[in-house]
């Protein structure tokens, strides 16, 4: 059977569905992706750039290719929280038996020596207040001030809060993957780098995620093993 599913948006949006091709392929299906499907209410953009398309989909050995045919398993909106686990929620949403807790990538990151703590404090669409982000990031920085802390800067970043720590430039998405892979502690916002770090480490390092203002304290958007910090002081640890 030919299965066609749809994606849109940024790095995190795509990584959320990255387990879907493998799971359908393991059932014997030929899996294709339509990343130009316009008939999903509220979704007006396609994959944001070619690097995301390459990293998440073209390198995925379980995806047979791309199709402009109408998706056969369109799922409108976001998945309901039925598992307390974001990736499992998506798998259930697509009619699959939920098995995975983290996104998947097939790029093999390269180790960069001298990186211990990495901050990536950029965002695109979420409701963040720069002063709040900086205050929360500084509190986390204080916990790890004796380690080698660096902050990622990139031309892809739309909105960003800078800390007074050494900067490291990531000119490509693969540079970012290498930096995240090399860290012992990662601090991000609820964004693409949050999902990318989770795909790389799968909960095996200390990872913080600073959540947006006003987002309810429920596990819909959470991955296991990550410390989620909310502006109102709520923590998941």
Describe what this molecule looks like in 3D.
The protein has a six-stranded parallel sheet with strand order 8-6-4-9-10-11, with helices on both faces. A three-stranded parallel sheet has the order 1-2-3. Strands 5-7 form a two-stranded antiparallel ribbon. It is built from seven helices and eleven strands. The protein has two domains: 2-93, no CATH class; 117-229, Rossmann fold (3-Layer(aba) Sandwich). It has helices at residues 11-15, 20-25, 50-58, 86-93, 130-143, 173-182, 192-201; strands spanning 2-6, 30-34, 65-66, 117-120, 122-123, 149-153, 159-160, 166-169, 185-189, 206-210, 227-229. It has 237 residues and is an alpha/beta fold. 37% of the residues are buried. The chain is 26% helix and 18% strand. Strand 2 (30-34), helix 3 (50-58) and strand 3 (65-66) form a beta-alpha-beta unit. Helix 6 packs across helix 7. The termini are far apart.
The CATH homologous superfamily of the largest domain is named Glycogen Phosphorylase B
Rg, Å, rounded = 18 Å
CATH architecture annotation of the largest domain: 3-Layer(aba) Sandwich
Percentage of residues assigned to helices: 25-40%
- State the separation between the terminal residues, measured CA to CA: 43 Å
Per CATH, the class of the largest domain reads Alpha Beta
Uncertain residue ranges:
none
């Amino acid at each position: 059977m030919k299965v066609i599913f749809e994606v849109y948006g940024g790095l995190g949006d795509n990584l959320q569905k990255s387990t879907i091709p493998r799971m359908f392929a393991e059932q014997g299906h030929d899996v294709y992706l339509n990343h130009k499907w316009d008939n999903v209410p509220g979704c007006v953009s396609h994959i944001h750039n070619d690097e995301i398309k390459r990293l998440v989909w073209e390198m995925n050995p379980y995806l047979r290719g791309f199709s402009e045919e109408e998706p056969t398993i369109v799922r409108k909106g976001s998945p309901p929280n039925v598992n307390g686990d974001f990736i499992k929620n998506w798998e259930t949403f697509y009619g699959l038996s939920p098995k995975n807790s983290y996104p998947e990538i097939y790029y093999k990151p390269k180790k960069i020596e001298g990186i211990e703590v990495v901050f990536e404090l950029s965002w695109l669409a979420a409701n963040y207040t720069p002063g709040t982000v900086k205050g929360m990031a500084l509190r986390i920085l204080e916990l790890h001030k004796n380690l080698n802390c660096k902050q990622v800067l990139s031309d892809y970043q739309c909105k960003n809060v800078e800390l007074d720590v050494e900067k490291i430039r990531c000119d490509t998405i693969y540079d970012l993957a290498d930096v995240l892979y090399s860290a012992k502690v990662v601090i991000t916002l609820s964004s693409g780098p949050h999902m990318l770090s989770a795909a790389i480490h799968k909960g095996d390092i200390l990872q913080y995620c600073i959540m947006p203002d006003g987002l309810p304290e429920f596990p819909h958007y959470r991955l296991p093993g990550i410390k989620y910090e909310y502006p109102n002081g709520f923590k998941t640890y």
